[in-house]
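Before the break, one more example. Copy the sequence into your notebook; we will annotate it together after we see the structure.
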Amino acid sequence: MLKRIKNTVIGDVFCAKIDDNHKRYLQYIVSDLTALNSDVIRVFKKSYPIEINPDLSEIVNGEVDFYSHCVTKAGIKREVWEKVGNIQDIGHIEHIIFKCKNDYKRADIQNDWRVWKINEEIIKIGELKGEYKQAYLGLVFPPTDIIHKLKTGSHVGVFAQFE
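Here is what the structure looks like once it is written out:
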């Protein structure tokens, strides 16, 4: 019988096993109405030994590796991460910029980019320049793709070339 998963809430912290000896943490920080009202997570850079259970405040004050859209509840359901607690410190979100392309199948076309900040309107910018080159991919990634990025440092497949 399928287990019913409770909804996740802003501030929830999750632990993801990245190999037999290490784990990393991520936190649900906001829902982005601009991107299908999807969950936005911040993924922390530090890797911890499996047997260590750091304090949540230590985790959320750590260096952020990347931000991404995903469905946190699906990560629990697929057993790729588990909820370990909730902490209201979600950091600052005003500086986070996401980018997306009209056609990811055409890497040769680089004048079809759009950018946005969380819950703000999308801006068509054409070519990526300046601060927008460092923007995070704004697609809603499946939990397994988030785990792939945790383990390898890059997105799955074609998306890796647009980071």
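The radius of gyration is 16 Å. The mean pLDDT is 90. Try to locate both features in your own notes.
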